[in-house]
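Researcher: Quick one. two chains, 330 residues in total.
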Amino acid sequence: MMQWESWSAFWNMGGAAAFVWGSYAVTALLIGAELILVLRRRRDTVRRLLRLRRVAPVRDGGRRATEEIFE
Amino acid sequence: MMTDTQDRPGHGRSILRFAAPQVFYPVAGALAPWFAGLAAVLAAVGLWIGFFVAPTDFQQGEVYRVIFIHVPAAWMSMLIYLVMAFWAAVGLVMNTRLSFMMAQALAPTGAMFCFVALWTGALWGRPTWGAYWVWDARLTSQLLLLFLYLGFIALTQAIEDSRRADRAGAIIALVGAVNVPIIYFSVQWWNTLHQGASVSLTRAPSMASTMLAGMLIMALAAWAYTFAVAFWRVRSLILERERHTDWVGAELEAQEGRA
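Model:
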């Protein structure tokens, strides 16, 4: 704790707590949200494409009309 | 189905083989966790320096500590846009689909950093300038950057046909790139309330060395984070676009138990 006399002084940020912590909190929230969305997108993509293959198996590399249902 | 030969496997040892989605997909999957780990370590070190080593600013007091996210976020928001424009240009010239996918994988993260730069700037501006927002050149051009990101995302998602979406997005990315040097040099070209650059290649930085170190390490953390998230995101895009291929079929089978 080189810069601070106590933890309460740290959290107080010289009276600028709302501005400093408001910045860090929103940044942390957005990064957390982005990570969740990216991982969820991965899971949803895999699920959706698997379901698609079950309904309309791709054997000739062609595009099936039934695909549109799930897009 | 698309029959580009350029981005199909078969370039042997050429660097171009990584332009094949099938080749890049596992590479991105292998690299992403390392970049994520690197980002976490760098952020921990950068925050430690920022909060416990860097001294109180003699003019601003403690509120300046917003700088450790504000500047890295602002830098990344500009850099990511330029990288998007670069991939868009490569995609248009070389007709490589992976380039467009990379541009689209980067956009949400760029938009996120752009918003963070604006948000933290507002919270920093209130106690130091007395206003959350002013319409000066730096702030206005940064706000325009956010709209460019959102426009790029909306446009590429709204167009059904992926080839047309790629091309339309590439135009926004390239035209909008003009705004990035305007943001960067705005503090020199116009009289802005926003301060000038604290870091420059041609002169000594106008801040304590520990402050500078914390800021640069946080910038590296943001950079590593961007790599990780963009690589994860591009993998989903590749699966989508390549869904008719046998290799994606095999990959989906492999994932079946886990999804």
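The radius of gyration of chain B is 21 Å.
Researcher: Thanks, that's what I needed.
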